[in-house]
Structures are given as structure tokens and as C-alpha cells.
Design a protein that fits this description.
This protein has a single domain, classed as Nuclear Transport Factor 2, Chain: A (Roll), CATH 3.10.450. Helices cover about 35% and strands about 35% of the residues. The chain contains 2 helices and 4 strands, in the order ααββββ. The chain has a 4-stranded antiparallel β-sheet with strand order 1-2-3-4, covered by helices on one side. Strand 2 and strand 3 form a beta hairpin. It is elongated and about 40 Å long.
Amino acid sequence: MRYRVAWSAALIGLFVAATAPSPAAAGFAERGCRAEIDRAISEAGVPAADVEEVLVIRRLGGDENSRIVGYDGWVRLRSCEGWLNVDLNRVCFVEQVYTRGDCTLPGVPKY
């Protein structure tokens, strides 16, 4: 009986460890999304010299914000007051690209 309880507890612990997102995995996804964000910046026609800062922010959802549902890439440009935003899903697929503030780019929606 004691062995069965210990074995069950070990299996439960293994399941929880295997299904919980680790900080290292989240960091890997954010770094992986950076390549997609860089591609979106290039496709929007922004020269690399115009990029001042890129922030990658996890978008959380689900019960008590317990899982990553996507990422937001906030790109500060030197040429304008505002941001180029790149919204990605949880596997780093670009969902939309748009600008905020005074930034305008040909062919990119402005909100």
C-alpha cells in the first residue's frame, strides 16, 4: 500500500513537471519570436538603423492567466513618437502588424 501511494505521487509529480511551462522554455519562445519580429520589421520596410528598441512581452490567458497565449513585439522607432507593434500567437506566428502613436508606415495599419 505504501509503495502504491509513493508510486502515484511520483507519477503525479512527473506529470505536473512535464506539463508546466518552465521559465527556460518561455525564454526560448521569446527569443524564437524575436526572429519573427525582426522579419516583420523588415517586411514593413523599416531600416535596421531606425529601430531603437524591441520589447517582447508574453500575453497570458486562461484560468488566472496561467498559460501563454501569445507574444507582443513592441518596436520603438527613432523616426517617430510611437511604436510598431507585432502581435504573435503562442508559436510565434505573426497575426498582425500595426503602428501606434505618430508612427506611420506605407501599407501598415495605424491604430
